[in-house]
Amino acid sequence: MKAAVLREVGKPLEIEDVQIDKPGPHEVLIQTSAAGVCHSDLHFQNGAYFYPMPAVLGHESAGVVEQVGAEVRYVAPGDHVITCLSVFCGHCEYCLRGRPALCRKEGLRRTPDETQRLSQKGEPMNQFLDLSSYAEQMLVHENAVVKITKDMPLDRAALVGCGVTTGIGAVQNSAKVPAGSSVAVIGCGGVGLSAIQGARLAGAARIIAVDMVESKLELAKVFGATDSVNASDGNAVANVMEMTGGGVEFAFEAIGLKATSEQAFAMLRPGGTATIIGMIPLGQTVEVPGVDFLSEKRLQGSLMGGASFRVEMPRYVDLYLQGRLNLDDLVSKRIPLEQVNQAFADMEKGEVARSVILFD
Ligand SMILES: [Zn+2]
Ligand SMILES: [Zn+2]
User: Fold this and answer.
1) Per-residue model confidence as pLDDT tens digits over 216-253
2) pLDDT tens, 261-273?
3) φ/ψ of residue 352, rounded to 5
4) Which domains does the chain have, with CATH numbers?
5) Is this model's pTM higher than 0.90 or not?
6) Is the peptide bond before 54 cis (omega within 30 degrees of 0)?
7) Do strands 248-253 and 182-186 pair parallel, antiparallel, or not at all (unpaired)?
8) Separation of 112 CA from ligand 1 center, angstroms?
């Protein structure tokens, strides 16, 4: 099958022929229909994070089940699924407490002495985040899929697999934003726009979008932002403080930078909570004034929206089908696999919400 392979940090992905194995007892073989190009892929390609190479990248996808292992009961061939990069075991402490994103992930991968799921000319190929969705097919653990209705368009379902769930979940699960709140979201890419949309669904009264690109601030209003702040003048915090008469109750950082994380904390009112969603480069520290903890300001992380995937992803699908969740405007481009490097370049320029790779 055709797949996009990362061989060296900083180099373009190569479109190569990669072999995929048959499903083991608890595995599912999927025909990939669509794969979103997410910032996290870029973080590994540009070296902000490390993954063993060579690896087939991609982790935000949806497709159709082709074949299942002998023990799989949850899905059958022909089912439509969203893939979930947070494969979960279902029986560790975190899974049992409803936090599968923090699962200990024991026994979910093939062991080193087994034939690997992906290979090339007999040599093992690394599977990125247990998925590798920049490929015509995926072979994954059954707990890495979420079954959805066939009414759902698969290119938009793909986005639910990472960015949408990460953004909405950060607002609703990690920060638990109540109706009537004031919210600021820094960074209006796919995840930030989803956080804005999550705040709208939660009934936030004021939703301030912060970005440096005017077209993204315009797009943010489509997703529910009530106000926008262009941060390119360097006064984002002062502007938000002034607009809100002393800061927001909830701030979200959806870029993954030290400076914007510190700004998210700085724009809180006393008692406010800043949630960092972006992937801050390895080794980078974030500094905030210690005295601010005396006014009960909180700084917290959020992984995969703190979501219970098989509960929440189908709900997002329902909201979309009811016309209450906008996924159509998140897709800025539909591209073939061969254009993945161009999609990375577009993302680096910060100009697009999401490029989605379509297969077939
Ligand atoms: Zn992602
Ligand atoms: Zn677990």
Assistant:
1) 999 999 999 999 999 998 899 999 999 999 999 999 99
2) 999 999 999 999 9
3) -120, 155
4) 2-161+306-358 (3.90.180.10), 176-301 (3.40.50.720)
5) yes
6) yes
7) parallel
8) 26
